[in-house]
Amino acid sequence: MTRVDGRVRLLGGRCGQCGEIDFPRKEFCRRCGGGEIEVLTLADRGALWSWTIQRFAPPSPPYGRYDDDFEPFGVGYVELPGEVIIEARLTENDPARLRIGMPMTLTTAAVRTGDGSPTTTFAFAPEEPQ
């Protein structure tokens, strides 16, 4: 995750041999095994490809630390057009407000690490008014 012109962006990789795009960027191409992987700033908008609601606290670590204040959260796959499908947290956790194909925008979400300290990760938010 980085910032470009004040906006959150994700950095992926594009294989110099076959053009395969991957996220996160890997050392070698998953398609052809090539080692010429260029850094690629990925699109910050996409479409919700699939989703679910995480209704129970995941085991920790490495998935963070949750005490009595756990709140369900959305997890989904967002398709960045012509690039890649990314698994990410969603800012929405109400199933009635999520649908396959809805436009999504890259943003951030506050989370806790395995030791309970706060940090920020990337997430996707619905573009449509709720």
From TrEMBL:
SUPFAM superfamilies: Nucleic acid-binding proteins (SSF50249). Residues 42-107 form the ChsH2 C-terminal OB-fold domain. The keyword Nucleotide-binding does not apply. It holds the Pfam family OB_ChsH2_C. One of its GO terms (molecular function) is DNA binding. Residues 9-38 form the ChsH2 rubredoxin-like zinc ribbon domain. Keywords: DNA-binding. This is DNA-binding protein.
